[in-house]
Amino acid sequence: MRRYLLHRLIALGLSLAVASVLIFSVVELVPGDPASYMLGTGAQPETVAALRQQMGLDLPLPLRYLHWVGGVLTGDLGHSFTYKTPVAGMILDRVQVSLPLAVMALALSVAIALPIGMFAAARLGRPGDTIMMGATQIGISLPNFWFAMLLVLLFAVRLRLLPAGGFPGWDHPLAALKSLILPAIALALPQAAILARVLRSALAETLGQDYIRTARAKGLSRSQALRRHALRNALIPVVTILGMQFSFLLAGAIIIENVFYLPGLGRLIFQAITQRDLIVVQSAVLVLVAAVILVTFLVDLTYAAIDPRLRQR
Length: 313
Hints:
The protein is mainly α and 313 residues long. The protein has helices at 2-29, 34-39, 45-55, 61-73, 87-121, 127-141, 144-158, 173-206, 210-217, 222-233, 235-251, 254-259, 265-274, 278-306. The protein contains 14 helices and no strands. Residues 95-299 form the ABC transmembrane type-1 domain.
């Protein structure tokens, strides 16, 4: 197990190093000069040069990369060119919205997908299986932003049960949670449909194994064999999808955040790109990539917990 853990930690470190180089390179290749953009087209060349020097844009690219990475390693993500505030503080404020939203959406996704996937797997080839898989196909096909607007029309405009958008902050916990319910549902629906189909397929494959037939021969019903024996062995592909979904929900909710006017990480990156605030883009994307890599690392550890054979590698 120690060797397995050491290999995964080394892979995590190398992934972060490569990701930092790629993120810095891609952002730097974006055309246009941030200093010229901030000052406007009528700015004097001397003023632009002075601002470039102040922003550190006159330094060679390798030196700028080392300064940036050195700051990241010490917890200093730099200062926003636009807002003149520490980037770390801006990201922390936005994470307080994006992370709870992702966790709520993932929890809803699992709560919806688990019974649907197990129900369909217990009735393979029957009408119940066909109906459930048809419903999940519809869930995958529906655009989440369109579904989000339907939720707003129903629960916010007509029923007036939940807010249509905005985020009051965690100083008001109940109001904050209520503001995240609709976006979490909008994000969870397509993810639950995907997860249910994966779970159903994994269970269908597992139910054909010899040990399941043995369990059935000992008197267990199909549903009992599924719950007691098949489910655990079908979890590895499900855990993989869960890790990918959490990464998507954390980093890819920009459309939903804009629909509900949520000040999350996705919206921060979008605003920073439009304002050419490169240091915010670099640091925020690196935080998201680090979160994805960390989730992948935790998924690998979960694999080892589910299947002890992986610990021997």
